Amino acid sequence: MIEKHVSIRYYEAGRLDQLPQDEQDLVKHAREMTDNAYAPYSAFYVGAAILMENGEIVKGSNQENGAYPSGLCAERVAAFAASASHPGISMKKIAICARSNRLEVKEPVSPCGACRQVLLEYENLQEEPLKILMASDNGKVIVIERIDDLLPLSFSGNGLKRVK
Ligand code: THU
Fold it and tell me: Which atom of ligand 1 is closest in space to residue 45's alpha carbon?
């Protein structure tokens, strides 16, 4: 057997103003979207904002449901809305923010595995990186150049496509 390694590169900013203006704006949109979260069960309010290649910003927030698994994360709400309303337009960047009135949210929120899988499919489809900005309330932001970095050895639906 051969030992192999996967490493990822990411960037950390201590303050929001260390990011370029368009990214600061995107984080602000994501933060505003936490107000639209419907999260009566977790009290964890997440907002996401996607910058499309045509300059539009598509937003989402987490939507929970009394039948717990029926709810959806902010990232997928935003990504599905982006693909549904702008098919064929690339997603350039996604910003994610969270806050809670019950818990202290010190660290930037990182997309869950299911959201990574969904975002990766769109990244692969558009053949261009989708940059991720994970922001916390205290100004810290983690930046990752592409979703692929967040899901090494990922499953791809390509094998499911018919050859003819
Ligand atoms: N949640 C998101 O919306 N995005 C994440 O990246 C992590 C978790 C939501 C799902 C659920 O409504 C609540 O946060 C608690 O897990």
Answer: 14
Answer whether residue 3 is part of any domain. no
Give the position, in ligand 1's atom list, of the atom nearest the Cα of 62.
3
23 Cβ inside 6 Å of ligand 1: no
In a domain, 112, yes or no: yes
* 3-class secondary-structure state, position 95: strand
Say whether 153 sits in a helix, a strand or coil: coil
Is 14 among the domain residues? no
**Host domain of residue 95:** 20-153
> pTM higher than 0.85 for the full model?
yes
Cβ 98 vs Cβ 46: under 8 Å: yes
Whether 75 is catalytic: yes
Percent of the chain with pLDDT over 70: 99
Pairing of strands 44-52, 57-61: antiparallel
What is the number of structural domains in the chain?
1
Strand order in the sheet with 131-135: 11-13, 141-144, 131-135, 91-100, 44-52, 57-61
133, pLDDT greater than 90? yes
